[in-house]
Amino acid sequence: MPKMKTKSGAKKRFSFTATGKIKRKHAFKSHILTKKSKKRKKRLGKVSMMHNSDAKNVRHLIAK
After folding, report:
1. Please, which residues bridge with residue 49 across strands?
2. What pTM was estimated for this model as a whole?
3. pLDDT digits (tens, 9 = 90+) for 1-58
4. Which candidate, 1, 19, 14, places its Cα nearest to that of 50?
5. What is the DSSP string of 15-48?
6. Do 25 and 47 form a contact (C-beta atoms < 8 A)?
7. Cα(22)–Cα(35) distance, rounded to whole angstroms?
8. Separation CA 8–CA 16 (nearest Å)
9. Residue 15: partners with Cβ closer than 8 Å, 6 or more residues away
10. Mind listing the domains of the chain with CATH numbers?
């Protein structure tokens, strides 16, 4: 049986920290920005960590 391929969509969206946590970007920052506050847009631009309950699924997608 051949090896499982990495999901290339997940590969582009997530990355790992040195301690093994998964980094992700926030959604809702691409368009319709006029009605969003400056504070909200600033927060959405920052990278955050993946929640533990979702991390297992993402690791399965990126498994090498």
Report:
1. 23
2. 0.77
3. 788 788 999 999 999 999 999 999 999 999 999 999 999 999 999 999 999 999 999 9
4. 14
5. EE-TTS-EEE--SS-SS--TTS-HHHHHHHTS-E
6. yes
7. 30
8. 15
9. 22, 23
10. 8-62 (4.10.410.60)
